[in-house]
Amino acid sequence: MSRVGKKPIEVPSNVQVTFTDGVCTVKGPKGELTFSVDQTITPNREGATLTFSRANDDKKVRALHGLTRATIAWMVEGVSNGFTKNLQIEGVGFKVELRGKRLLLNLGYSHPILIIPPDGVEFAVASPTVFSVKGANKHLVGEIAAKVRKLRPPEPYKGKGIRYEGEYIRRKAGKSAGK
Question: Which strands form 121-127's sheet, in the order they lie side by side?
Answer without folding.
Answer: 121-127, 130-135, 83-90, 161-164
